[in-house]
Design a protein that fits this description.
It is built from 4 helices and 22 strands. It is mainly beta. The chain folds into 4 domains: 48 residues, no CATH class; 107 residues, Immunoglobulin-like; 99 residues, Immunoglobulins (Immunoglobulin-like), CATH 2.60.40.10; 89 residues, Immunoglobulins (Immunoglobulin-like, Sandwich). The strands form 6 sheets. Strands 10, 11, 13, 14 and 15 form a 5-stranded antiparallel sheet that branches. Strands 4-3-6-7 form a 4-stranded antiparallel sheet, with no helix packed on it. Strand 16 and strand 17 form a beta hairpin. The protein is elongated. The N and C termini lie far apart (109 Å). The N terminus is likely disordered.
């Protein structure tokens, strides 16, 4: 409401100024006319400007009826419904709420009839507004266990009744509803262990029969990295498919939390929606990579004689691991121990060995190494003999 509507028009003050003019200025026009006339003009203009020039009776006091809630939202998870809305800050006539009131959380069970019988299930205080602007976010929870068990109703309908200190309100114009269909139970015995491709998850399913052919039962596999508040959907799958999967999208050397959320996709002739069940127990795992690459295959050794530069040329089939860092080459002669002959990791599947002697027979093997230093077993051994001069 504007300032001109808040300031009440005072007719008694106008009468006083008029009487002052008649009593002082008229009998003594030369002595007071200029001074008093100036005063009356200023005072009259002030009254006109603050009253916005709208004569009439004084405005009635505020009815102190809070504005209705217009952004009520409801989210169901299992048998629990979470309601959120913005607390009203103004009354119906635009005044800030100055007196405490209350917000009644109302619920009705819809059975397809036109009339809904709302009942108060909880009460929150409606505090006076200290500053102009958007109100605080309010939250309330409701449990549907009894309503789901008794059956008969199709929806639970909610509304928030904002009342002033005098108990007056706008009624129940704001309504949201949630379906009263059973939700899937969460999986049991969820476990996580490491495999070479990532984290393998397993769980046990105890699935009830769908209520109708149109219902689809699914699981959402969720993940959260340590230190993060963001939940990531790993995969959404039909609940009857299998009780496990491998998450190969992880980063090694990080800790993760996993849980399974059951959901039911439903629809009828008029409505459709998704009901989210309670989460399973959370399992935690450190994705420490202790899995070496596969041993290289196809190793061959061929003596190569070049002018003033003879060597044994080693080649093998390249490994395909995405975290491969390189290879190590091992050699021995006779019954001696195999010794690594490369000073740094070999980046390609080829290695020339120039440190050879005439008439000697050498035995070679190769290993693969990943980015975290895990080394594979040795490849099959191959040999080559250096010709005598």
């Amino acid at each position: 409401m504007s300032a001109c509507n808040r300031i009440r028009y005072e007719p008694n003050l106008i009468r006083f100024l008029f009487a002052l003019f008649m009593r002082i200025v008229i009998p003594h026009p030369l002595q007071y006319s200029r001074q008093v006339l100036r005063f009356l003009v200023v005072a009259g203009f002030g009254i006109w400007s603050t009253g916005c020039g709208v004569p009439g009776a004084p405005l009635p006091p505020s009815a102190e009826i809070p504005k209705f809630v217009g952004d009520l939202k409801a989210q169901r998870k299992g048998a629990t419904v979470t309601l959120t809305w913005t607390t009203p800050t103004e009354t119906s006539d635009g005044e800030l709420i100055r007196k405490p009131g209350k917000m009644l959380v109302q619920r009705a069970l819809s059975t397809g009839q036109a009339d809904l019988q709302f009942q108060t299930i909880s009460e929150l205080p409606l505090k006076p507004t200290l500053n102009e602007g958007r109100g605080d976010q309010a939250t309330a929870k409701d449990t549907l266990t009894d309503a789901l068990r008794s059956g008969g109703a199709e929806f639970a309908v909610y509304s928030i009744l904002a009342q002033g200190r005098n108990g007056k309100s706008f009624g129940l114009p704001n309504r949201v509803s949630v379906p009263l269909r059973p939700s899937l139970p969460p999986p049991k015995n969820v476990s996580a262990h490491l495999v070479s491709m990532g984290v393998m998850l397993k769980w046990e399913e105890d699935l009830p029969q769908p209520n109708s052919p149109s219902e689809i039962q699914q699981f959402k596999v969720m993940r959260r990295a340590q230190g993060s508040n963001e939940a990531v959907l790993v995969k959404q799958m039909n609940a009857s498919a299998y009780g496990g999967l491998v998450d190969n999208t992880i980063e090694w050397e990080k800790s993760y939390q996993y849980w399974i959320t059951p959901i039911t996709l439903w629809q009828d002739e008029k409505h459709k929606g998704v009901i989210e069940g309670d989460d399973s127990a959370i399992v935690e795992i450190l994705a420490h990579d202790s899995f070496p690459p596969a041993a290289p295959a196809g190793l061959q050794a061929v003596y190569s004689a070049m002018p003033q530069n003879s060597f044994i040329d080693l080649t093998w089939t390249a490994n395909t691991e995405p975290d491969l860092a390189g290879y190590n080459v091992y050699r021995h002669s006779g019954n001696g121990l195999a010794v690594k002959i490369n000073s740094e990791l070999v980046k390609t599947p080829r290695f020339p060995d120039p440190n050879i002697q005439s008439g000697m027979k050498y035995f070679y093997s190769v290993t693969a190494v990943d980015l975290r230093g895990n080394e594979s077993g040795k490849s099959d051994e191959t040999s080559e003999t250096v010709p005598k001069d």
